[in-house]
Every structure is written in C-alpha cells, then in structure tokens.
Design a protein that fits this description.
The protein contains 8 helices and 6 strands, in the order αααααββββββααα. With 312 residues, the protein is α+β, with helices and mostly antiparallel strands. It has one domain: Arylsulfatase, C-terminal domain (2-Layer Sandwich). The strands form 2 sheets. A 4-stranded antiparallel beta sheet has the order 1-2-3-4.
Length: 312
C-alpha cells in the first residue's frame, strides 16, 4: 500500500538496548552497508572503461537530482504547513455553521432545527471506504459528531485526529483522538503505531462490545463472556503489534498487517478526502467525481487493450 513500506516494522529505541546490544546492532548495520558498497563496486568494476566513465557521469547526475529532490520535499512540507494554517479559519467557520453556532446571512425564518443535521455522518457514509466501517448501530451516536480535525505532530512525528461530539447518551468523552506515529525509512513514511482514545461508555450503551452472563450448571458463580461487535468506534482501538513479534506465525502476521493497512486507509481517507472536502461528500458531489475518475481510468485501459489487439 502507498505510504507504508512495511506495517510490521518497529523502531528500537536506544533506551531499550543495553550497551552490548547497541554495539552488536551498530556492527550489523556496518556489515550490511559494507556488503552493499562492495556489491556497488563490483558492478562498476565489471564495466568497460568507456562505459564506466559514462556511468560515473550518470551517478553525478543522480546525485544532483537527489539534492534537488531533498529541497523539493523540504519546500513541499513547508508549503503544506503554510496552507494548513490558511485552511484553519475556513474549517472553523464550517464547524460553526454545521453545529448551528453561526447562522448564515439572509436567514430570517425562525427554525427549531439548528445547523446541518447529520453532516459528518452523511459525509462519511457517502465514501465507500468509510461506509464499510459505519454500522447501523453506530449511526445514532455519529449524529452527535460536530467536527473532525487533523494536524501534523513533530514529537513524535506523525499526525493526529480529533473528533468533537455533543453531549450524548453513548459516552462521556467530548473529544475522541487518534494519533499516528510515523518513522522515515529510505525517505518513505512508515507507520510505526497508532494510539486511540479510550472511550468512556455509559453503562449499557457500549457499541463495540457487550459482557454476557449466564448461569453455570456446575457452579453458583455465573459465567461471563465478552462479545465483540463490529463498529466504527473500533477505529479508536487500532491493531497493535505484540512486543514479542518474532513469535507471530505467518498467517497472524499477514492478518495483522492487513488490519493495520486498512486502519491507515481509513485515516488517509479522513485526512485527505473527507476533512478538506466535507460538504462535497455530504452532497454526494465527491462521489460523482470519484466515479467519473474511475470510469475515465477504465475507459483509458479499455482503449489501450483495444489498441494492443489491433497491433497484434
């Protein structure tokens, strides 16, 4: 999946390593780098002298390209941060209108209904990825959702979501947060872990699980069992990589990676599509745009296939 090279990689901090382990890790890295360097030299030495000169020039060109690319990424990051701040007042005004705090100019008719009811619920349900996560039992709780925000964080590096709710009968939290910790590896952001808010459910209204009890025939003590439910609110309890991940079997590791990739897909959709274009998802306009884009890609592929058949 784009944006995640390997969901199961974990960063090992210096605090977790003894001096002997640090020395061993450094030596291992040195050996790997040395092996790569030797492989690189072997390739160059196998070339004819005239070709070697040309490749040396190509390497210099690549070095210049890499320097420009590094500057581009630095300027891109600064530009994204600049415009994220400029978007802020627009998002705030949108939130005030949606929640009914701010009335639109020209409204004279008195109405009991304030704001735009079910704005975020409808916006998310119109997106294919998020619609799969929202179950019928979630909808009443999501009607209390007033706003969704996200921001970048630097320590640790990553990004954070904030879901703002009106007072509701489902849980006590006014704000539910989720933080994604990212690490850079080969200039590519990799998901290290995600941490969500612990939801304080009101008794009897938990949407993610239920504790069931039944009488035991062999004991006076009742048997309890926790039944897990599918729910959008499981988004705030993301999958975690066990501490001793070396003992995970291949099937479990693959399932865990799929869960983490799915979780990151949801986050990317919220961050890159829903939050910046919420009203377009609410009205359904964004759905039409995505369908048109997908249709255009399919038509292009069909044309390519037809052209290939004619050539054959």
């Amino acid at each position: 999946m784009s944006g995640i090279a390997n969901c199961l990689r974990r960063r090992v901090s210096d605090a977790e390593l003894s001096s002997e382990e640090k020395a061993s890790l450094v030596e291992t890295l040195k050996n790997k780098l040395q092996a790569l360097a030797e492989q690189h030299v072997d390739v160059l030495e196998s070339l004819a002298p005239v070709v070697r000169k040309r490749v040396d020039v190509l390497i210099e060109i690549q070095s210049q390209h890499d320097e420009l690319e590094a500057k581009f990424l630095e300027e891109k990051s600064a530009l994204e941060a600049k415009y994220h701040k400029l978007y802020g007042p627009l998002y705030s005004k949108r939130s005030e209108i949606v929640s009914g705090v701010l009335e639109v100019e020209g409204e004279t008719e008195e109405r009991e209904e304030k704001g735009v009811p079910d704005f975020w619920l409808k916006a998310m349900k119109n997106n294919e990825i998020l619609a799969e996560e929202i179950h019928e039992s979630d909808e009443e709780a999501l009607k209390y959702l007033k706003d969704i925000k996200w921001c970048r964080i630097d320590d640790p590096k990553g990004f954070k979501f904030e879901f703002f709710f009106d007072t509701n009968p489902f849980f006590k939290n006014q704000v539910l947060t989720k933080i994604y910790h990212m690490i850079d590896e080969d200039d590519e952001p990799i998901l290290e872990k995600a941490i969500g808010t612990e939801i304080e459910w009101h008794p009897g209204n938990c949407l993610t699980q239920e504790v069931l009890t039944k009488e035991s025939l062999e004991s006076t003590k009742p048997i309890t069992k926790t039944e897990e439910y599918e729910s959008f609110f499981n988004f705030f309890s993301p999958p975690q990589v066990p501490e001793d991940d070396e003992k995970i079997d291949e099937n479990t590791a693959e399932e865990l990676q799929n869960q983490m990739e799915r979780d990151y897909d949801i986050a990317s959709t919220l961050r890159d599509k829903i939050i910046p274009h919420a009203v377009s998802w609410f009205t359904g306009e964004a759905v039409q745009d995505e369908d048109y884009g997908a249709s255009w890609v399919d038509d292009e592929e069909d044309d390519d296939d037809e052209y290939s058949d004619e050539e054959a």
